[in-house]
Every structure is written in C-alpha cells, then in structure tokens.
Amino acid sequence: MPNEFLEEFEPLLVKGIKEKRQSQYPNKCLLLAMCAACIGGTFQYGYNVSVINAPTEYVQNFINQTWKQRHQTDISENVVVLLWSTIVSVFTLGGLLGATIGSTLSVKLGRKGSLLMNNIFALLAALAMGLSYSVGYFELLIVGRLFIGINAGIGLCVQALYLGEIAPTSLRGAMGMGTSIFITGGILTGQVIGLKELLGREEYWPILLSTVSIPALLQLVTLPWFPESPRYLLIDKGDKEACQKALRQLHGSTDSEREWEDIEKEKNNLAGLQTKKPWQLFTDGSIRWQLVTVLLLSAAQQLNGVNAIYFYAEYVFKRSGIPNDKIPYVTLGTGACECITALTCGMLVECLGRKVLITGGYTLMGICCILFTLTLTFQDASPVVPYLSVVCVFAFILSFGLGPGGVTNILTTELFTQNARPAAYMLTGTVNWLSFFFIGLLFPFLVIGLQQYCFLVFLVVCFLVSIYIFFVIPETKNKTFLEIQNEFKSGRKKKLSYYGEEIGANLLSTSV
User: Fold this and answer.
1) Phi/psi at 78 (5° precision)
2) Do 334 and 393 contact (CB within 8 A), yes or no?
3) What pLDDT does residue 21 have?
4) CA Rg, the chain, in Å?
5) What kind of membrane protein is this, topologically (predicted)?
6) Distance CA 506, CA 488 (A)
C-alpha cells in the first residue's frame, strides 16, 4: 500500500495514542529553551534569597571594621543591625523597581531580548559585592543588592511571559512550573554553596556574593541559541516568517501547525487593539475578575505563612534536640522539600489541573497552621511533640510547593491574552514585592504580639483564598487563552468541544 494511504487506514485509537504522546513530552529544543530562560531568571531570584543568609556574621564584622577605620570608634550594635537589614531588604525594593519596568522592556525588546539585557544588572551586582571588601566600602553591598533585586524583579516578570508563550497549550502548565522548579533549585543551591565546607567561611564571603554572576553568564551563553516568543513575533511584531520558524524550532514541524493556528486566531481576535498599560486594566470590565484573581493570588503567595514557617524552623529544630551546628544541614531538607514538590507539581499539573492543585495546597496549608499552632503551644507536654512540629514544618512546605508555589504564575499567564499579559505581570509583580516587603516589615511584630498564635492569622488567609479559588476560578487546563477569556466574560462555566484534530475549535457553551 502506498505510504500516503497508510495514515488514512491507521486505526483511530493508535492515532490518538500518538497524539497523546506528542502532547505529553516537550521537544528537546523547547525543554532547553526553558532551562536557558530560567537559569538567569527565577533561579537567580531563589539563589539570592538564600545565599545572603550564610555570611550574615561576617558581613556585620566587615561593617564594624570599616566603620572603625573611618571614624576610629566602634559602631553601635543597633546601627550594625540597621545597615545589615538595609542590605538584605533593599533586594525587595530592587525587585519592586524591576517588576515595574519588566513589562515595558518585554514589549520594547521582546521577551528574549529583555532576559538577555537583564543580566547586565546581575553582572554589576556581582562586581559591586565582590569588590566591597577589597575597597573597604560596605555601601557597595547595598548597591549590589539593589541591582540584583532589579534583576530578580525583571526576571520573574519576563521569564514567566516567555515560558507561557513558547509552550504548546497541552504543556503550558508543565512548562510554567519551570518558574517554581528553578526558584526552589536556586534556594537549595544557595543553601549548599553557603555551607562552611564550600564558600561559607569568613575569607570567602565576597566570592560567595559575587557568584551571582555565574547564572547570568550561563544565560548569556545559552539563551541566544533559542528563538524569541512566537506569539510576540506574530501578534506584537507581525513577523509571520520568524514566528513560523520559531514554532518549528520549538515544537517540531507537526505540532507547529497547530500552535500557528491558535496564535493566528488570537491575533485576529486582537486586531486593532493596542498593548494595554497597567492602569488600563483597572478600567476594563471584561478582565475585572481576572485582575482581581491574580492580584489576590500574588498577595496570598507572600501572606500565606510560608515565611513564618521558615522563621520558626530553627526554633523547632533546636527544640527537637538537633545540635546547632547540624541545623544548617537540616535546613537543607526544607529546600529539598520545595524542589521535590515543585517537580511533583510539574508532573501533576497537566493531569489534575491547576484548580485542584492550588485549592488543595491552600487547604492543606490551613490544616498545617492548626496543627503547628497546637504543637508549638504544647511543646513541653511530651518529648514527641517537638518532632511533630518538625513534621508540620515539612508538611507545610510540601503543601506550599504542591500548588500555591508554582500554579500562581501559571494562572497569571493563562488568564490574560497577549495585549494585556505584560501589564498584568507588572501589576502582579508589584503586589508580590510589596507583600514581600510588608510581611518582612510587620512579621517580627506579629510574632512578638501573637507568638505561635500568629499561624491562626495565616489559617484565615489560606482558607479564604481556597474558598475564592473554588468558587471563582475556572479550570484552565488544555484551554487556549481565548477560551479561558470567554469563560470569565460569561461568568459561568462552559463546556469545550473540539472537532477532529483542530486546535482552534469553536467554544460551545451551555448555562449551568
């Protein structure tokens, strides 16, 4: 039988299995493009969140020595703490600034171009922090942390845009989990590099802080080999040839046709519409609930108590009888937990869907808040109770990584179309960084005032968010951006029906 007739007589079941296999496994180029984008994006963010903890004592000694050389007197302990807290917290201010300019850069320079340009801030940060000790200026640490914060703010915004736009519809959730996987990988790497067996010694701390240049250099070497976002090329730039070439490179010749139809359909739907500014999203009634949803989830990601768990972790480990010199190694277990759950969520997100994972994650976190409050309250009731507290620490982190830690960014990508997505990321990034700063500022006072009962506050946050998600957010798995937008527009659940193998099928809705 001629080859051209083989496909016609191929059993439908076999064809369906082939299509399913194609949708489950990304093209090698697509996977490598994700790694190249993430290594200088969210990996950099996670790395800088954790790596600053190891040299705390050494940097404070450096500040004291520098002050004494300049003024021939010791600096007061309060001023040292103030300067150190400035070095740590200026990272969040830089992140806020980066989030506000990230969306503009992504429109002007493209997603790939913005990520490449963003590495300038990381290299400047590495130079400033690496030279601070040799030149005797602790102020360079503040400058360096500000630059690396800007880098993180831009990276979190633009990288998520890039991953969401290069991924096929069937793999968008799994690809979006790259953000969470590389954040947790960065946190774990920073914890490992900061051990005394590696660069955690006093004489190595300038080198430790300057290692932020390594992810930046890796991205500068690898990312240029991969194409720009196909959606950006066609919808924003109108370059059909470049878009088709990028799709073939990222998805292969077979799947690229399907993605081309989807992108072209979105382009036709957005014909004549300009890219929205952030303030325009507040006045657009058609995306009001999408905006409320992503802003709420972005704030909840910082206010759900995960920072409180990390604050209490050392106390819990000490009460459990773990020696002080072993606590840093146990803390590595928390980083490993986040990595494991991020990978697990990446494998489950296309099977269970976004809604199940994020609702279940917040519900489990709320339950952990109750149990953790009880174990901390009755620490002395039994020798077993401190170990139950340790279990609660790991259970809470596992619950966070299972849903809220990774799915939040995916939903921000999926709930908006091309002309509103950059502005949405700017707003969610701003809310995320402001919430980060807010919880860092007020959390110590919350702990002093409520002690272990502060987790009851986080319990309320987790349960309210899970209720909102359950009743408001539709499932977005395997739906195009236009289909998701239509569900929100109607305010009711709709049923999608696909005809044959056509990706851009019509949306059939029935009232419920």
Assistant:
1) -65, -40
2) yes
3) 41
4) 24
5) Multi-pass membrane protein
6) 16
Please state, in angstroms and rounded to a whole number, the distance separating the CA atoms of residues 264 and 387: 56
Residues 203-246 pLDDT 10s = 899 999 999 999 999 999 999 999 999 989 888 888 888 888 98
The answer to which of 74-83, 207-216, 488-497 has the lowest mean pLDDT is 488-497
Q: 183 and 46 in contact (C-beta within 8 Å)?
A: yes
**134 and 194 in a common domain:** yes
| Cα–Cα distance, 229 to 494 (Å, whole number) | 29
For residues 332 and 390, state if they share a domain: yes
- Decide: residue 53, CB within 10 A, 0-12 exposed, 13-18 middle, 19+ buried: middle
Cα distance from N-terminal residue to C-terminal residue, the chain: 50
Q: How far apart are CA 181 and CA 349, in angstroms?
A: 13
Tell me the torsion sign for CA atoms 238, 241, 245, 251: positive
User: What confidence category does residue 77 fall into, taking pLDDT thresholds of 50, 70 and 90?
Assistant: confident
Distances (CA, A) of 273 to 235, 418, 419, 421: 10, 10, 7, 13
| Alpha helical stretches, state H, 109-177 | 111-135, 139-166, 172-176
* Residue 189 in tokens: 């790497």
- Best CA proximity match to 376, nearest among 277, 482, 442, 451: 451
335 neighbors 191 (Cβ within 8 angstroms): yes
- What whole-number distance in Å separates Cα of residue 191 and Cα of residue 46? 10
- Tokens representing 97 are 């600034």
Q: Total domain count for the chain?
A: 2
Residue in the structure block whose two tokens are 């990996």? 43
Does residue 279 lie in a domain region?
yes
Q: How many CB atoms lie within 10 A of CB 448?
A: 9
Show which of 165, 192, 226 is a domain's final residue.
226
Residue linked to tokens 């915004």 = 157
Whether residue 118 is found in the same domain as residue 39: yes
According to DSSP, residue 233 is labeled: I
Which of 292, 165, 285, 185 is closest to 237 using CA atoms? Answer: 165
* Nearest partner of 255 among 236, 238, 230, judged by Cα: 230
How many C-beta atoms lie closer than 10 Å to residue 362's C-beta?
28
Per cent of the chain over pLDDT 90 is 20
Is the pLDDT at 13 greater than 70, yes or no?
no
Rounded distance between C-alpha atoms, residue 432 and residue 295, angstroms: 8
Asked, for residue 469, whether it belongs to a domain, the answer is yes
Based on DSSP, count helices (H) and strands (E) in the chain, helices before strands.
Answer: 24, 0
